[in-house]
Amino acid sequence: MQENEWAGMDEWARLAATLKFVKGYDARDVEELVRLIGAQKAGARVIERIEQKLADNNIGHLPTKLPTDSTRRVLLYSKEHVGLGYVLSLIHQLAIQDPADGENATVNQLESLLNSISALSRATARSESRG
């Protein structure tokens, strides 16, 4: 990302870009998000505005409903990140999915990704024990 592109972004777009291009996720205090939206206290309406801003910028969050307690930390993730951000997005989809939905695609995608991560971890452990 070019420096001049960064300068033209608002704070929410910068947060989205940071999540997307760094590691895909980050834990933040609710208080920080409250300040970012321009409020002083995390009431229900402020939380709704924050959740909308996050959604507008393709940023997911866990828990699925942000708390109104400013001291709580939440996990933010980029829905556009190809690594862990994507894994977190799938987990979030499953967490809010209606159990009556007969869709297995999300579970299958998540299982495939987790199997790949697990295989990579085992391969790394084996190569470290040899070396």
Description:
With 131 residues, this protein is mainly alpha-helical. It is built from 6 helices and 3 strands, in the order H-H-E-H-H-E-E-H-H. It has helices spanning 3-7, 11-21, 30-37, 44-56, 84-96, 105-130; strands at 25-29, 59-62, 73-78. Strands 1-3-2 form a 3-stranded antiparallel sheet, with helices on both faces. Helix 5 runs antiparallel to helix 6. The radius of gyration is 17 Å and the shape is globular. The termini are far apart. The model has no long low-confidence stretch (mean pLDDT 86).
Strand content: 5-15%
Radius of gyration, taken over Cα atoms and rounded to an integer in Å: 17 Å
Number of strands: 3
State the shape. Answer: globular
Query: Whole-Å distance between the termini?
Result: 37 Å
Uncertain runs are: none
- Protein structure class: mainly alpha
Strand order of the largest sheet: 1-3-2
How many distinct helices?
6
Keywords:
single chain; 131 residues; mainly alpha; three-stranded antiparallel beta sheet; 6 helices; 3 strands; 58% helix; globular
Layout of secondary structure:
Layout: H1 3-7, H2 11-21, E1 25-29, H3 30-37, H4 44-56, E2 59-62, E3 73-78, H5 84-96, H6 105-130
Antiparallel strand pairs: 1-3, 2-3
Short description:
This protein is mainly alpha-helical.
